[in-house]
């Protein structure tokens, strides 16, 4: 017979899709999100894509009596969009911005300008220390030809590393967010295996809502139907993950996803469905304490697969750096040639000068191409260095895993 838990937590997670001027019915949906958070009184609300600080402050004002502690994580040009509302006092906060996050020239996607990050808050509830993380990884715009897969794998690796290195003093770890990965993707498997996290959906004693836990549904009026044509049952990309410690264990009593419009309203909360997990925390028996975590042999294969994806990204970044460098050199040669021709026409007597307008226009074009190419060359050089560094970190991690498996 199970003993009564020390405490229960109700955790709410939602990608709010609240981009000013672009997201449909943003203000109405933000008001509905505030209403449900106020009525339900969750212990924690982990929100993503709250791009406007004005929306955050409106939510904060509305929820101040139910959630006295909250924090908005700022990063990038337009902001991380991450925020946390808590019934319990927030003791500390920290933000880590991922080292790679798409490309600034991909304006139609815009992930680079968001400064995708992971936010951390520390709580203490009944003398139990909680590290709560909220994140939003780079979007997947085309699954068949996913140019951002290496970046997302690097983000998953950095997220796992960040959790490992910041949670050593925590009793309970909670992670919520839009990870933009299917449950079987290498990034999810790497994150769960490396950081030792459990998925609230797969571990739940009871599941309500979508049978497969999908959070992108074709029935949602805001969902891009073209992206969903190959997934008639929906896609699960929003997660609540958790792990305990040597002193405390945690289990998921219930995992609930919303499945459409808000009750009594004609619109859903967002283009994503909300996820709610009810978690129980119990004291671990002394003889069952996890003093030596078990290393799964499968993690070696997962890490090798992730390392291969990073190598693919590295080769692509090196090609892009070479192309930008070559374009910069050509633009510089054109400028030198123009300068030579200008000096020759100015001091020589045998050559006719170009029309001034055409000559100036060509020179301006060469300068613009040189500047853009040089900036992109530097950007891709940084990308190459980061991918090389991540690949080396994974190599060290693989060696450590092999040593543990051989010694065990």
UniProtKB/TrEMBL annotation:
<keyword id="KW-0746">Sphingolipid metabolism</keyword>
<dbReference type="Pfam" id="PF03372">
    <property type="entry name" value="Exo_endo_phos"/>
</dbReference>
<comment type="pathway">
    <text>Sphingolipid metabolism.</text>
</comment>
<dbReference type="GO" id="GO:0046872">
    <property type="term" value="F:metal ion binding"/>
</dbReference>
<feature type="transmembrane region" description="Helical">
    <location>
        <begin position="327"/>
        <end position="347"/>
    </location>
</feature>
<dbReference type="InterPro" id="IPR038772">
    <property type="entry name" value="Sph/SMPD2-like"/>
</dbReference>
<feature type="domain" description="Endonuclease/exonuclease/phosphatase">
    <location>
        <begin position="25"/>
        <end position="272"/>
    </location>
</feature>
<feature type="transmembrane region" description="Helical">
    <location>
        <begin position="359"/>
        <end position="379"/>
    </location>
</feature>
<keyword id="KW-1133">Transmembrane helix</keyword>
<keyword id="KW-0479">Metal-binding</keyword>
<dbReference type="InterPro" id="IPR036691">
    <property type="entry name" value="Endo/exonu/phosph_ase_sf"/>
</dbReference>
<comment type="pathway">
    <text>Lipid metabolism; sphingolipid metabolism.</text>
</comment>
<keyword id="KW-0378">Hydrolase</keyword>
<keyword id="KW-0443">Lipid metabolism</keyword>
<comment type="similarity">
    <text>Belongs to the neutral sphingomyelinase family.</text>
</comment>
<keyword id="KW-0460">Magnesium</keyword>
<dbReference type="GO" id="GO:0006665">
    <property type="term" value="P:sphingolipid metabolic process"/>
</dbReference>
<protein>
    <recommendedName>
        <fullName>Sphingomyelin phosphodiesterase 2</fullName>
        <ecNumber>3.1.4.12</ecNumber>
    </recommendedName>
</protein>
<dbReference type="GO" id="GO:0004767">
    <property type="term" value="F:sphingomyelin phosphodiesterase activity"/>
</dbReference>
<dbReference type="GO" id="GO:0016020">
    <property type="term" value="C:membrane"/>
</dbReference>
<keyword id="KW-0812">Transmembrane</keyword>
<keyword id="KW-0472">Membrane</keyword>
<dbReference type="InterPro" id="IPR005135">
    <property type="entry name" value="Endo/exonuclease/phosphatase"/>
</dbReference>
């Amino acid at each position: 017979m199970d003993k009564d838990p020390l405490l229960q937590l109700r955790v709410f997670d939602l990608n709010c899709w609240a981009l000013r001027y672009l997201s449909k019915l943003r203000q109405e949906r933000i008001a509905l999100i505030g209403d449900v958070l106020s009525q339900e009184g969750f212990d924690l609300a982990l929100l993503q894509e709250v791009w406007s600080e004005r929306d955050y402050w409106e939510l904060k004002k509305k929820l101040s009596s139910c959630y006295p502690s909250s924090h908005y994580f700022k990063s990038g040009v337009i902001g991380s969009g991450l925020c946390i509302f808590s019934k319990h006092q927030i003791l500390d906060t920290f933000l880590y911005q991922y080292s790679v996050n798409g490309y600034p020239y991909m304006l139609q996607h815009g992930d680079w300008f968001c400064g995708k990050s992971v936010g951390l808050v520390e709580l203490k509830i009944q003398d139990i220390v909680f590290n709560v993380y909220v994140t939003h990884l780079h979007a997947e715009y085309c699954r068949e030809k996913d140019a951002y897969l290496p970046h997302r794998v690097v983000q998953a690796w950095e997220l796992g590393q960040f959790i490992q290195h910041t949670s050593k003093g925590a009793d309970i770890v909670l992670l919520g967010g839009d990870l933009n990965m299917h449950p079987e993707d290498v990034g999810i498997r790497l994150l769960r295996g490396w950081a030792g996290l459990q998925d609230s959906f797969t571990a739940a004693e009871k599941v309500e809502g979508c049978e497969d836990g999908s959070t992108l549904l074709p029935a949602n009026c805001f969902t891009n139907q073209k992206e969903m044509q190959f997934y008639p049952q929906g896609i699960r990309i929003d997660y609540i993950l958790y792990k305990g410690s040597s002193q405390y264990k945690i289990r998921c009593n219930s995992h609930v996803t919303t499945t459409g419009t808000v009750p009594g309203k004609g619109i859903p909360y967002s283009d994503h469905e909300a996820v709610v997990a009810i978690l129980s925390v119990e004291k671990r028996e002394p003889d069952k304490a996890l003093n030596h975590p078990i290393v799964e042999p499968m993690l070696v294969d997962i890490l090798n697969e992730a390392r291969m994806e990073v190598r693919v990204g590295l080769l692509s970044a090196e090609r892009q750096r070479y192309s930008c460098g070559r374009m910069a050199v050509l633009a510089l040669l054109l400028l030198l040639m123009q300068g030579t021709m200008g000096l020759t026409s100015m001091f020589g007597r045998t050559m006719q000068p170009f029309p001034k307008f055409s000559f100036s226009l060509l020179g301006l074009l060469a300068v613009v191409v040189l500047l853009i190419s040089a900036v992109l060359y530097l950007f891709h050089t940084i990308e190459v260095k980061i991918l090389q560094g991540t690949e080396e970190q994974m190599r060290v991690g693989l060696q450590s895993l092999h040593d543990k498996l051989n010694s065990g």
